[in-house]
Each structure stands twice: as C-alpha cells, then as structure tokens.
Design brief:
By secondary structure, this protein is α/β, with parallel strands linked by helices. It has three domains: about 140 residues, NAD(P)-binding Rossmann-like Domain (Rossmann fold); about 200 residues, 2-Layer Sandwich (Dihydrodipicolinate Reductase, domain 2), CATH 3.30.360; about 110 residues, 2-Layer Sandwich (Nonspecific Lipid-transfer Protein, Chain A). The chain contains 16 helices and 20 strands. Strand 4, helix 4 and strand 5 form a beta-alpha-beta unit.
C-alpha cells in the first residue's frame, strides 16, 4: 500500500482509549472512523480523536470504500465477535479483533475460514505479549540467560477499587459472561495470562483447574496448573479477589506478577497492569546475585501501542501477525480447557476439545501415560543384577567427553571422584572428573584429593546408569551408590551429561 492506512474502530468503550494510543503519532495510518451503537458516544469520540467519520451501524462503516482496516472492540459474548469479523472479512477489510477471538472453537474456526477466504490480515489483539517486560523476558529466555526453562508462575489479584472509572455498561456484558458459563477472571482476563504462558514457553498439552466463586459472582479464588507439550515444563496461576482491597494503578483494579524459572536462572516481572509492587519492574537472579532491570518501559498501556504497531506493520507486510488466528485459537483452547477442567473436576487435554468423544480421548491418554510410566527404564525399586553392564563401564565413561556441554559448565569449579568397585569380573577403577572454567578433564587410575563429591558404586551399576538402564536416584535409594560431599553437584552432572 502506498497511501496512509485508514482504520476504523467498531466499539468506542473504555478499552478503546488504549487502542487509540497506537494511532496518535503515526504517519502511515490514521484513525479514520469510529462506530458505536451509542450515537452520543460515537460523536464524542469523533470529536475527541478528530476522525473523519462516525457511525452507529458497523455495516455502514464496512461499506465505506475509503476504509482499509478495522479494530473490533466489542464484547465477545453472544458470538458478537464472529458476526462482526465475518462481515468485515467479506467487506475486504483487514481485521484486528480484541481478545478472546471467540467463545467456542467452532465459532473461531468459522472466523478463520472467512478471513482466509477473503485474504485479509487477521489478528487477535493481545496487549500482554507486547508488554515490554514480557518481551524482555522472552528475549532473555531465548538467549539462554536462565538455561533450560522449567516453569512459569503467574499471580493475579483484583480488588474493590483502584484505577480508572469503568462504565456500568462494561460490567453488564461481563454478567452475561457468567450466565453463559465463563469466568470474568479465568476466561476473559485469563486470556492475557494464557497468552503470556503460551508466548513465553510454548504450546500447552493439558490443564487442571480449581475455580471457586465469591458472593459477587467473581470466579475467584482459583488455581490453574498446566503442562507444556513435548517437554517437562509446567505452569501455575492463582487468581485472588480481595473484596476490601484497593489496587493502586492507572487502569483496572487488578495486577499480576510473573516468575520464570530455568535450570540456571530466574526472571521476575513484578507488575503488569497496576502498581502494587514498587521499585524495578523486573529482576534477574543468575545463581549468585539478584540484578534489577530498570531500563524497561513498565506502563501497561505500552502493550496496546505494540499491538497496534504489529497490526499496521503486518498489513504493510513488514511483520508477522501476533497473535495470529492459529495462535489465538490455541490460546482459546487453553482458556476453554480451564473452564472444562473446573466443571468436570479432572485433568483436561487441549486436544480433546477437538475430539468427537472428548471423555474417551482423555481416558485413552491417561491409560497411555500409565503404561508408559510402567516402561520407564530403571524405575523399578526391586534389586536386579546389573553386573552384565560392568564390561561396558570404562568405554561408556570415556564417551562422557563427547557428551560434555561446555556452555552449561561455564563458571563451574567441581572435582568429583568416582570409585567403581569390582563387579562382574571387572576389576575396580578409580576416576577423577574435574570441571573448571567450562573445560572437562577425565583421568583414570586415581581419585582426586579434596573432591567436591565422592561416589562409590559397583561397576555394573555405573554402566547401567550411563546406558540409562538405571536411574541414579533409584540406585541411591537402594543403597547401591555411596556419596560423600556436596550431593547437589551430582544433580548438576545429570543436566551436564543428560543422565
């Protein structure tokens, strides 16, 4: 496109103030028109934002040939998003729809199909994935600053007062949400948190949720836990509503903080939408010291500006859409699985929501996991003869050099002595393992002096551990491994050599 992009807002409520921020200083896009059922509000917004046109019927707006794109900022209850999105796609307008994209997967699929057929840019507006501290955390994770990501913990708290005044009309449709069976905290606001969890650590496999309800109809307190796909990564989020608590902030009467744990570091984001916690917005712990990260913008509204930038740049072909339709559908599956889990009082797989027989799908997955657990090598607590692995022990030990990951061992200073006792016709062996400054030295025939950790184990058991036929923790419980010194260093070795 060579001309300036003309964008229209469908919906001029409270949240539209934040959407407008992304257009105030732009040269390549203009807020061209506004639309709201409330004629007085539409006219007031037209004057306030100096738009060219104001409408009370969104279909009349979509018929305007000067309009290139729309931001859909209407409630998502009663399938309203679906109706407006499909009409906008058929009119050939690029679309940014406020989260969540829909209230059911079938509705979401119809929207995606229509957008794909029309060839328009389709984006679900999610400001949290553009909130600078969350973007910074993502950058830190991808750069390896916390090692291998392990888990994310999210805290949500809301109160009785704080922030800006929210019109009564904004609460009315949220009551409709409750009547339709979706929580205002865990589904509506929850979309922000599930998007953050998805953005930071990837797609989710299954969830387990407990959702209570206050006398005011708010779905709190609640606890939601989840496991990520194809990994040993986990997440947990707890929701609390404190009915007599004031929440200091500029926007809504709620706040969040986030902790991301890795194998070698921690990242803390200490505030999002309000200002309960003062001081630096982020902190980083590397195992030695805690560092404040102060150069990151922490105004929650900045995320809306980032989302708008992404929408406009994607229309011009300069950026990829975030959240794309497929990504938003995955977050929606997460949000629906949370509600389903709380109602069914069981763990819910996201994939079962697309299954013809959800309960049967979940049951087969549980049985499959149980069978897999029975087949885990070395899990048995019964004594077994492992001496057959003794002849392979030395060769397997030498192979440790090939599996050494120097990047993991940076800054380590560890000396380990391994005494392999005679077993299976193989004579005893003494081994010195020294890791210093990211380098590994492996010496046979001697035990080191002043070892950080000393291990005595039968040669066959050692061979079985290196072959992953025996878990070291099980061997320890069975008394097959004797350890002296700093046993936590042995846990670091497991990560280093992938035992």
């Amino acid at each position: 496109m060579t001309k300036r992009l003309n964008v229209g807002f469908i919906g001029c409520g409270r949240i539209a103030d934040l959407h407008y921020l992304g257009y105030k200083e732009r040269k390549d896009a203009k807020l061209y028109a506004v639309c709201d059922l409330d004629k007085d509000l539409a006219e007031a917004r037209k004057k306030e934002w100096n738009t060219v046109k104001a409408y009370n019927d969104y279909k009349q707006m979509l018929a305007d040939p000067e309009l290139d794109a729309v931001e859909i900022i209407v409630p998502h209850s009663n399938n309203l998003h679906e109706r407006v999105v499909i009409d906008a796609a058929r009119a050939g307008k690029h679309i940014a729809v406020q989260k969540p994209m829909a209230t059911s997967l079938k509705s979401a699929d119809r929207m995606l199909q229509e957008a794909a057929k029309s060839g328009v840019v389709y984006k679900v507006t999610e400001n949290y994935v553009f909130y600078p501290p969350i973007l910074k955390a993502k950058e830190m994770i991808e750069s390896g600053m916390i090692g291998e990501p392990i888990s994310v913990r999210i805290k949500f708290i809301s109160g009785s007062s704080g922030g800006w005044k929210v019109p009564v009309e904004a609460w009315q449709w949220r009551v409709q949400e409750l009547l339709e069976g979706r929580g205002t905290a865990t589904f509506d606001h929850g979309h922000h948190l599930w998007s953050t969890a998805f953005f930071l650590l990837g797609n989710v496999e299954r969830v387990n949720a407990w959702i209570d309800q206050t006398t005011f109809g708010i779905d709190c307190p609640a606890i939601v836990m989840w496991k990520y796909k194809d990994s040993s990564r986990y997440g947990v989020c707890d929701f609390v509503h404190s009915q007599n608590l004031h929440i200091p902030g500029d926007y809504y009467a709620n706040d969040e903080w986030i902790e991301i744990n890795g194998s070698s570091g921690l990242i803390m984001i200490d505030r999002c939408s309000a200002k309960i916690q003062q001081g630096p917005v982020m902190r980083f712990f590397n195992g030695k010291s805690m560092t404040a990260i102060t150069e990151v913008e922490s105004d929650w509204a900045t995320g809306f500006v980032g989302a708008t930038n992404n929408f406009i740049r994607s229309i011009y072909g300069e950026d990829r859409v975030l959240l794309s339709g497929d990504e938003a559908r995955e977050v929606l599956r997460f949000a629906l699985a949370v509600q389903h889990s709380a109602k069914k009082r069981r763990e819910v797989y996201l994939d079962e929501l697309d299954s013809f027989l959800p309960s049967f799908y979940a049951a087969t997955k549980r049985v499959g996991r149980a069978l897999e657990n029975m087949k885990i090598p070395g899990l048995s607590l019964f004594n077994e003869d492992l001496s057959k692995y003794a002849p392979e022990a030395r060769k397997l030990t030498e192979k440790i050099l090939g599996g050494f990951d120097a990047s993991v061992a940076q800054g380590w200073d560890i000396t380990i002595g391994v005494h392999l006792t005679e077993d299976g016709g193989v004579k005893e062996e003494r081994i010195s393992i020294i890791i210093r400054d990211g380098k590994l030295n492996l010496n046979f025939g001697e035990l080191p002096e002043n070892a950080t950790l000393s291990v005595q184990v039968a040669t066959g058991v050692w061979g079985a551990i290196l072959l992953r036929k025996k878990r070291p923790e099980v061997a320890f419980l069975q008394g097959k491994i004797k350890v002296e010194g700093q046993i936590e260093e042995g846990l670091k070795l497991r990560e280093l050599f992938k035992f």
